[in-house]
Amino acid sequence: IENEYGAQSKMLGPVGYNYMSWAAKMAVEMGTGVPWVMCKEDDAPDPVVSILTLHFKGC
């Protein structure tokens, strides 16, 4: 789930968390059967996998 909203989500408090949760729920409810990943969210709800992406020159 292309989100990269982690820092902004934290600044907005409950409103930011609600948006992140909505995005995750919407993706999961599509029923694709594949794992979903949400970048830069350390508290993405299950079953969404949360990761922090690292960007390197040339990638």
From TrEMBL:
InterPro entries xref list: GH, Glycoside_Hdrlase_35
Organism whose genome encodes this protein: Trifolium medium
The protein's name: Beta-galactosidase 3-like
Lineage: superkingdom: Eukaryota
One MF term in the entry's GO annotations: hydrolase activity, hydrolyzing O-glycosyl compounds
GO biological process, one term: carbohydrate metabolic process
PANTHER family referenced in this protein's UniProt entry, alphabetically: BETA-GALACTOSIDASE RELATED (PTHR23421)
Family: Belongs to the glycosyl hydrolase 35 family.
